[in-house]
């Protein structure tokens, strides 16, 4: 028991084959590459395109407020708050851009981990984002104006085109990490309206044994209909074996799947709330479907997303760890009950759902940004 959670280490390879690929495609008689859209955290893509005289844009898959924090990194170094490795140089809270609350260096992205490899990867991520921002005049973001108005006013050149929802993806296969178990949709059809708790923690979160057992008992104590995604790798074999008894105990009102069609699940009328790690996609999907969030951030931007949901938008509540570093079963039960009883949260999140839908409808801010972007590319 008590094994430390695994923190995924991300690496950002240089686009070594991109130059070759562009040369190959553009020397053929087929259609040529004349514009590139790249994730800014993947270093060097836009620089390679630029070498060939090809324009490019970045697409940022997290929030605009978090992007602003990345873009602010060089200013924190200049101001002497941190050094180039992100280490704190002053023992004081730093003033951050726009409406981000003042923060200590430890709460910054690169401060969350003691693991030097993870920290190094996150610094590379930040450096890549800043380099890409210098190369392109077009930055797209999966957000919408009304979700983060102060940041959009501060960065008028960043075009938000969200919410981009997985259920709206074109083509097959849909690029899912795991096969979707869509039997949960027909199961949801048989559940009462707004009664089911949906719990899912994205593509890479892991739980140690102690935490997983607390979560399992917490979900059982809540004693409501439950749909829970237990992804391969979410926890270890010992915990998976303990799921068998749990499944039997909740058989009347619960379902566990390996991977759900999440966007469709969140749009289902039987969903009452979403226990989430606050990855930005999950956050956007939940809010765009008017579902209150119970925020359980784990790493990276997830803490910022949880702050935004709970303190700024006020459409969710968060769980905190106790002195042993655990979110306890009794807290899980209490917070779910508190969330479900909060009419203010429910009415605010339903309003946000309407706003999110308008923003991608004709004339909405994200819809206009997509049109503007296409027109700009065409005329460039
Ligand atoms: O059963 C499931 C569970 C999840 N999903 C989908 O998987 C995606 C998960 O994305 P996200 O919520 O953003 O979580 P992560 O996979 O953890 O995302 C990483 O990337 C995000 C965007 O940059 C960051 O915000 C996160 O912190 C980082 O962990 C979403 O589209 C979900 O709909 C499913 O389709 N089925």
Automatic annotation (TrEMBL):
Transmembrane segments: none annotated. GO terms for molecular function: UDP-glycosyltransferase activity. SUPFAM superfamilies: UDP-Glycosyltransferase/glycogen phosphorylase (SSF53756). Pfam families: UDPGT. This is Uncharacterized protein. The keyword Glycosyltransferase applies. Gene3D superfamilies: Glycogen Phosphorylase B. CDD domains: GT1_Gtf-like (cd03784). It comes from Aquilegia coerulea (Rocky mountain columbine).
């Amino acid at each position: 028991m008590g094994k430390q959670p695994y923190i995924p280490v991300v690496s950002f390879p240089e686009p070594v084959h991109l130059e070759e690929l562009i040369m190959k495609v553009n020397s053929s008689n087929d259609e040529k590459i004349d514009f590139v859209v790249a994730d800014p955290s993947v270093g060097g893509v836009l620089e390679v395109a630029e070498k060939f005289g090809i324009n490019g844009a970045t697409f940022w898959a997290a929030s605009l407020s978090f992007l602003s924090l990345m873009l602010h990194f060089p200013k924190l170094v200049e101001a002497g708050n941190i050094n180039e490795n992100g280490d704190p140089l002053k023992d004081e809270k730093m003033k951050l851009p726009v409406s981000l609350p003042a923060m200590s260096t430890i709460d910054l992205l690169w401060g969350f981990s003691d693991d030097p490899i993870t920290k190094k990867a996150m610094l590379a991520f930040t450096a890549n984002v800043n380099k890409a921002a210098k190369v392109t005049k077009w930055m797209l973001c999966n957000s919408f104006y009304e979700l983060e108005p102060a940041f959009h006013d501060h960065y008028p050149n960043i075009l938000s085109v969200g919410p981009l929802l997985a259920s709206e993806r074109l083509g097959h296969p849909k690029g899912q990490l795991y096969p979707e178990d869509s039997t949960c949709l027909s199961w949801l059809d048989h559940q009462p309206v707004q009664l089911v708790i949906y719990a899912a923690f994205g593509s890479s979160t892991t739980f140690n044994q102690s935490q997983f057992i607390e979560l399992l008992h917490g979900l059982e104590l809540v004693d409501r209909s439950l749909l829970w995604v237990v992804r391969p790798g979410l926890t270890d074999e010992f915990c998976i074996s303990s799921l068998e008894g749990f499944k039997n105990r909740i058989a009347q009102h619960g379902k566990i799947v390996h991977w759900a069609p999440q966007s469709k699940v969140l749009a289902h009328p039987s969903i009452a709330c979403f226990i989430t790690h606050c990855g930005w996609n999950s956050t956007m999907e939940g809010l765009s479907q008017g579902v209150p969030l119970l925020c359980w951030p784990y790493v990276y931007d997830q803490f910022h997303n949880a702050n935004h949901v709970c303190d700024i938008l006020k459409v969710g509540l968060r769980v905190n760890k106790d002195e042993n570093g655990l979110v306890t079963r009794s807290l899980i039960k209490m917070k779910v009950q508190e969330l479900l009883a909060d009419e203010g949260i429910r009415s605010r999140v339903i309003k946000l759902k309407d706003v999110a839908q308008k923003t991608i409808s004709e004339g909405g801010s994200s819809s206009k940004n997509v049109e503007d972007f296409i027109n700009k590319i065409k005329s460039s």
